[in-house]
Amino acid sequence: MTQERTIPKLAAIAPVSREEGLMLYEDMVLGRYFEDKCAEMYYRGKMFGFVHLYNGQEAVSTGVIRAMRQGEDYVCSTYRDHVHALSAGVPARNVMAELFGKATGCSKGRGGSMHLFSAEHHLLGGYAFIGEGIPVALGAAFQSKYRREALGDASSDHVTAAFFGDGTTNNGQFFECLNMAALWKLPILFVVENNKWAIGMAHERATSQPEIFKKASVFGMPGIEVDGMDVLAVRTVAQEAVARARAGEGPTLIECLTYRFRGHSLADPDELRSKDEKEAWLARDPLKKLAAHLTAQELVKAEELKQIEQRIQAVIDEAVQFAQTSPEPDASELHRFVFAEDS
């Protein structure tokens, strides 16, 4: 069992209204149910290739992305990108169709599970190689600042969030991009989803400084550690970081302590992690934690949450039907998008 870190406690968690609470819960349920359906389709032989699911980490995607402006701010993901796309507003049917390799997919069937993209929703892509997306996110943050300060576009106050795992923080792109972001005070959030395992390598065995948030101090930027199983805690930290970035105060490194409930991918037998470790984290399910908070605070009734779950299940079922009946990419378009196009 890997070494445990004390879960950080925030001095204060931003209050949540009934409407916000319902929105956060619905977004997390959408992510969880979508991934569960992906597993079902994969094991039934309806979905192929590498598929890396996000179960257990929903509080990170929802807490960060839903603290941003949908369709205006930018999101850059990894190979575990389905739920980031959903939180960014990409319709479930278009994400599912992409996983089925259909022309109606958000990447037109050309990307698959690890390469989701949507210009409309400012989703800058999923990336198969770790660290590959961080420079792309940095570029998006740079252009926002350049448009505002060099071109005089006062409306260009967009913020970018770059998501990546704990294993990525030992790679060169991580350090180089943190340095540039801090030097130029770029409006970017570096979001580490520390789920304790880089495929089969325990985090503590792979780095000389397991507390990733402390690496921010080298670059003179804020580094924050947060309970990645608590969407309200993640949301609070994200709101503060987004406000700093939008005000021109520069980047923030956010380390979210979280856990994936499934193996690294659906092809992973998940035999390296101990039963005790998995059960301890399963007991901290972020969906159950938020549901308990909302009902305890009498913001919602349990029946309302059940209705959300039923509605989301219908959305997922429709997404599968849409994906299954959508057309395959036409062979005549095989060479399209090899090079950039005007439209």
From TrEMBL:
<protein>
    <recommendedName>
        <fullName>Pyruvate dehydrogenase E1 component subunit alpha</fullName>
        <ecNumber>1.2.4.1</ecNumber>
    </recommendedName>
</protein>
<comment type="function">
    <text>The pyruvate dehydrogenase complex catalyzes the overall conversion of pyruvate to acetyl-CoA and CO(2).</text>
</comment>
<dbReference type="Pfam" id="PF00676">
    <property type="entry name" value="E1_dh"/>
</dbReference>
<keyword id="KW-0786">Thiamine pyrophosphate</keyword>
<dbReference type="GO" id="GO:0004739">
    <property type="term" value="F:pyruvate dehydrogenase (acetyl-transferring) activity"/>
</dbReference>
<dbReference type="InterPro" id="IPR001017">
    <property type="entry name" value="DH_E1"/>
</dbReference>
<comment type="subunit">
    <text>Heterodimer of an alpha and a beta chain.</text>
</comment>
<dbReference type="InterPro" id="IPR050642">
    <property type="entry name" value="PDH_E1_Alpha_Subunit"/>
</dbReference>
<feature type="domain" description="Dehydrogenase E1 component">
    <location>
        <begin position="27"/>
        <end position="331"/>
    </location>
</feature>
<dbReference type="InterPro" id="IPR029061">
    <property type="entry name" value="THDP-binding"/>
</dbReference>
<dbReference type="InterPro" id="IPR017597">
    <property type="entry name" value="Pyrv_DH_E1_asu_subgrp-y"/>
</dbReference>
<keyword id="KW-0560">Oxidoreductase</keyword>
<keyword id="KW-0670">Pyruvate</keyword>
<dbReference type="GO" id="GO:0006086">
    <property type="term" value="P:pyruvate decarboxylation to acetyl-CoA"/>
</dbReference>
